[in-house]
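In response to reviewer comment 3 from the previous cycle, which asked for concrete evidence that the modeling workflow produces usable outputs, we include below a single protein chain processed end to end. The sequence was submitted unchanged, and the resulting structure tokens are shown without manual editing.
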Amino acid sequence: MTEPSNRLPILFILITLVLDAIGIGLILPVMPELIRDVEGVGVSDAAVWGGILMTSFAVMQFLCGPLIGNLSDRFGRRPVLLISLATMALDYVVMAVAGSIWLLLAARIVGGVTASTQATASAFLADISPPEQKAARFGMVGAAFGVGFVIGPIIGGLLGELGPRAPFWAAAALATANLVFGWLVLPETVTDRIRRRFEWRRANPLGAFRQMSLLPGVRPLLLLFFLYEFAMFIYPAIWAYFTQYRFGWTPGMIGASLAMFGIGVAAVQGGLIRVILRTLGERNTVWYGLTYNFFAFLVIGFLDNSTAILVLTPALALGAVVTPAILGIMSKAAGDDQQGELQGVVSSTRSVAMVLSPLVMTQLFALFTGDGAPANVPGAPFVLAAATMVVCALVFTARRPAGAPA
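The workflow returned the following structure tokens.
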């Protein structure tokens, strides 16, 4: 594909990734009130239920990420993406009419499957990108997530004022519109040259991890990626409960703050990342991001000023440069016929982090805010995230780059 002919397909891919992020961000502003209304519990207990819903979403991403990626390596990116989008639109409709926590849980499970298309979308970008452009293109993936993190909380916050179900109708309409757009503009990039037969042993998470770990230098990078995503997922996992408990923020204010963070992520990973990569290189970009996030988490954890937190929210995104740098390094280690499989493993690695992070962060929040808390420290999850950045730095220091002597 030539560069001009790439534009509409890339736009479709980015919109698809935005919708994946919307699926996470959409429910964040309304989730505390929705769970409290459905279950009749307080903020601390609602946070625990919120963690369970997020974990169910992530478990399905973990299980289905390699499967979807391998299917796209065999049958092509186009059919996998379009079928997933159609299912996503239907899932939003179910969430819009859900009247119990169990139906919401079922919808989150299906949503986790449809969100596994991030692996296929990233593989499409790898298909059409020369090696020197891959890290920057993966930065576009992060930017799309940032945009979704803007749109999702805005829709959830504004429409949530009308009722907790209203945001899901809007998301269903967006998914349907993007499905039609993709049907019209998305080409197939999997040719007979790179098509790989489907194998169940490589389509399950453990088999896919085993295969990708054979690539030079990839295993420690997957561990680093997991730890980093575990820490960064603190924002969707705990932000709504943390800000409502500490500052008394409403759904509209929570949505606005998350939107500000998403704008920052989109700006960093959609534009600034290219300058940073060109100036620092991939390795030093990772170091910069880990250091910045360490101090940012500590500030959030201990700063007890609502206005200051709101003002600082966009600046938190300046550390969101680690993921595209790591993905760029790993993608260069994989062959052209392994890009879908690699991105499936990356998606599952992220999903494992998404499984554990909401459970750990919400339980830690409940421990330090609920009845009988040993100390009232609502910022405790952010202290844990800062400590995780230190562990990330140790893993990155210990890794042996591809080609280095054993």
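The chain has a mean pLDDT of 76. We consider this sufficient to address the reviewer's concern, and the full set will be provided in the supplementary archive.
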